[in-house]
Amino acid sequence: MSDKPQAEQLRQAYQQAKQQHKPTALQQRQLKQACRAANAAVRQVSWWQRGQWILACGALLVLATVMVTQEHIQHTTVYALSYGDYEQVETHSVEQGHYVTHIREQKQALDKQFSQQQKRLNEQRFYGRLVHSDQDTWFVADCRSKTLLEIKHSVLDALQAEPVLSDLAPGQMLALDKNTDGHLTTIAAVPRSVYACP
Q1: Considering the chain, what percentage of its residues have pLDDT values greater than 90?
Q2: Per-residue confidence band for 54, with pLDDT thresholds at 50, 70 and 90
């Protein structure tokens, strides 16, 4: 219980000291100005910090724009009509009371078929150089592979439609064709201006 009267005495002493040592109006204004100046210095942001904030906001704006644009592009691409994705197009219509269907093959499919046929033709046609010939055999070096073809005159006689082949000398380039069974079907001289394997 002795603590309560002691606390009351301290409070009264504090109030009296406060009244006796009260700052003047000028001192109070100076103290307020000093506090405001200190707070203003803390609040001031440097130009570098402002620049960083502006750049960060600009980057977020650009990122949001790109994301929205990308999403829009993806949605439009999904629903876009592209004939190139299909090998053929069927057109169904009613003309003069009759149901008519037209099928158009796309250029892409035709190009693929053409390239396959061209490849097949190139696989069958090949070139070679006449290396040596004697009375009953020709030796032809295949340009595609390291293969020496030994062609007997019986095959040459069966294939030879032109007498020009009999006058060929070693070193002459030849164009040869094979069928699907691997049998030679034609042998033709390549113009003398061709000196190397194509």
Answers
A1: 5
A2: very high
The pair of three-digit structure tokens given for residue 6, joined into one six-digit string:
């002691």
Q: Do residues 90 and 103 make contact, with C-beta atoms less than 8 angstroms apart?
A: yes
Ramachandran angles phi, psi of 171, nearest 5°: 100, -15
DSSP-derived 3-state class of residue 93 = strand
Rounded distance between C-alpha atoms, residue 142 and residue 126, angstroms:
8
Burial class for 180, CB neighbours closer than 10 Å (0-12, 13-18, 19+):
exposed
Mention every residue, 6+ apart, whose C-beta is less than 8 A from residue 101.
90, 91, 92
Global model pTM greater than 0.70: no
Question: Which pair of tokens denotes residue 72?
Answer: 């829009």
Mean pLDDT of all residues belonging to the chain: 78
Q: Dihedral of the CA atoms 158, 164, 167, 168 (nearest 10)? A: -80
With CA atoms as reference, report the closest residue to 134 among 159, 166, 157, 164. 166
Q: Which spans in 3-46 are helix H?
A: 3-20, 25-43
Between residues 4 and 61, the one the model is more confident about: 61
Q: How many CB atoms lie within 10 A of CB 174?
A: 22
Percent of the chain with pLDDT over 70: 77
